[in-house]
Amino acid sequence: MLDSRKEKILKAIIDDYILTGIPVGSRTLSKRKEIGVSSATIRNDMADLEELGFLEQPHTSAGRIPSDTAYRLYVDKLMPITSLTKKEAQEINVIFDHKMMQINEVVEKTADVISKSTNHISVVLAPQLKTATVGRIQLVKVSDTKVLVVIVTSSGIIRQKVIKVKNDISDDYVDMLSKMLTKHLADKKLVDAKAIIENVFMSEIKGHEKLFKSLLSSIYDTAESHTKKDIILGGANNIFNYPEYQDIDKAKGFLEVLETKEVLYEMLNQATDLEFSISIGHENNFEEMKNCSVVTATYRVGDKKLGSFGVIGPTRMDYSKVVTTLNYISKSLNATLEGFIESKDDE
Questions:
Q1: What is the torsional sign of CA 200, 204, 205, 210?
Q2: Which of 41, 54, 136, 336 is deepest in the core (most CB within 10 A)?
Q3: Do 213 and 264 fall into the same domain?
Q4: What is the share, in percent, of the chain residues with pLDDT greater than 90?
């Protein structure tokens, strides 16, 4: 355990380094009123902190910089609690108040607002629902030759598609088919729907092959959208704002890792086990992220976790600002998804 003076000195070093990116020296700290001790005392405490693994000295005559261990202590104990300004909150609210028709648009907007609000790289994992089941299937005849297919999954996610049909199909037949589909497919896995339809609706398919082919295609597309590894990336160019990545080759290498998206998928998929997590430098399981910090949060509808999102940035990121922003966005996103589902259920 560190005594209160060393904690105060360490916090001052971290705050200063987050702000400037420049190694911090004892003379700089001695000018801060909250420290209240001489440069000599500060130098001794800094030497102790270095020996304990909290500080590093990049050059012999330079000041010190925080280690991953220091950032961990800072996040767990020393980090100040902040709030968004009225303007920052309004800018986020404007994004989520916008009427969005599809859930994928909500997710894309989330990636955009995270990167703009934090000035870091944002990553969002689209809903991962491999075991999603059918809630209901509704068919609505919208013209003589067109039927609207509405598929609602157990997660509340809705998929709509207009399919072409023969002009001799009656409204009563379409209504009857809706009820039969919901009866036989409700609570069944999306991935099993094709086999169930082909088995149960064998007599109905005859004479309506085109209708059922389009219907199966809609169900297949819905199942596919629940299982593919969708990663939305935002603000990748923010990496060039980090002094740590001024080396173009280093920046390009990191961007190539982002582009593959496999590492991001594994990272975010693991993050869905926790409401909120902060991985600092060498705490990250993936070699490509050892020089970064990753802060993630989950999003949900009701009590069901749908996916996760977060930021990737340098280890000297402003953790307090990032955590506050992601918390606010998480609540806004959850509320938006809840409202989105409710509005669809009322239609």
A1: negative
A2: 54
A3: no
A4: 32
Beta bridge partners of 159: 151
Q: What's the pLDDT tens digit per position in 207-223?
A: 777 788 888 887 777 66
The answer on 271 and 341 residing in a single domain is yes
Of 220, 234, 13, the C-alpha closest to 118 is 234
pTM for the predicted model, two decimal places? 0.73
Judged by DSSP in three states, 176 sits in: helix
**Residue range 3-20: mean pLDDT, rounded:** 94
Task: Choose among 151, 317, 153: nearest CA to 235.
Answer: 317
pLDDT value of residue 129: 54
Could you read off the pLDDT of 255-270 as tens digits, one per residue?
887 877 788 888 887 7
Give the start-end residues of each E strand in the chain: 55-56, 65-66, 121-125, 134-143, 146-153, 158-164, 231-234, 276-280, 292-301, 304-314
Domain at 142, CATH number:
3.30.390.60
The verdict on 266 and 204 lying in the same domain is: no
Domain boundary among 169, 197, 227: 227
Residues 204 and 70 in one domain: no
What is the three-class DSSP state of 151?
A: strand
Amino acid at 292: C
* Confidence tier at 62 by pLDDT (50, 70, 90): confident
Distance separating alpha carbons of residues 85 and 96, to the nearest angstrom? 17
Q: How confident is the model at residue 344 (pLDDT cuts 50, 70, 90)?
A: very low
On whether both 237 and 342 belong to a single domain, the answer is yes
